[in-house]
Amino acid sequence: MVPWQYMNSPRMAFAAKVCHSFLRRFDPLLNQFHLVRPVSSLQKLEEDVRAEVEAKNYVKIPDLLIPLESCHSSNSNPFSFFSSFSQNLQVQVIDEMLQSFIPLRPRSKPKIALFFLLTYTLQSSHPLPIALAVLQRTLRSGCVPVPQTHVLLTSAWLDRRLSHSVANVLLEMQSIGYHPDCGTCNYLLSSLCAVDQFAEAVKVLKGMGGAGCIPDLNSYGIVIGAISRARKTVEALDLMKQMVVKYGLTPGQGTLVKLFAALRANREIWKAVEMIELLEKEGHSVEFESYEAVIEGCLEKHEYVLAGKVAIGMTERGFIPYIKYRQKIIEGLASIGEWKIACAVRQRFASLKS
């Protein structure tokens, strides 16, 4: 539960603003977590969990929580008694618990305990950095946090970022014996993007290297894909160039398709062609779907010469445009008097027996 004194904090104000619209997207998923249980049963479970915590028998906790596997609800958290502990004691106990879970097999055995721990820490008065440690252990156990974690993590992150840099917030994990990694940062990026905090996601992407987490293919893919869907093409192009030129990473085809679709929707087709040229110059392949989106964009803007140029480049890499586009390119070139280019394009298609 959220302490009353934090209801007016920036973190809770943000959560209240986005939680309703975000959770509606996941109604089918969340419905499975709503199961009414007798209050006395929940109280007894919490007492049993507390007894094992006080006895430091942490490995027994996952088995105790099996009855809650189908009813993960933030309204009844078996770790709510942690609020009676001092902050230092909470961190100590949670750390000991996380360490005790590492040898358990299968790795996902402590899944329910980790989910409740993550929810508790993110809603506590001092969520970071301990919540990032719980998140890291959850991900390393092969588990995916429940959907509402995106909202809770984003609000906690933004609250902490009011007075700290990206690198500083991440490096706070070291103060409790943990180290930030790409997996944790990537989940943070996906959370920020899930609730449309694109500007902050870009800042995290650019700042995570300062905490020793060099962005990887997934890091860029998450952010570029999200801001492309929002048609923020200036930022998306900048990140794509940084990814390809600075870090030498090969973008995933799914990410490229999203970027070119956004450029097409914004009618920025020249920028799309320039991006294809940059990718090929840097030795990265562009697949059929991306070429197709760019040709469609060219034809929509009546850029027939540009469409012919892209089509020729496409054939040089073993791809042939669909026949309807081939016809439109040739007809379009003829309609603007570009007969020589039209003939050259037609001959190129003919040489491929298309």
UniProtKB/TrEMBL annotation:
PPR repeats lie at residues 181-215. The keyword Repeat applies. PROSITE patterns: PPR. Keywords: Repeat. It holds the Pfam family PPR. It comes from the Eukaryota. Belongs to the PPR family. P subfamily. NCBIfam families: PPR. This is Pentatricopeptide repeat-containing protein. It comes from Stylosanthes scabra.
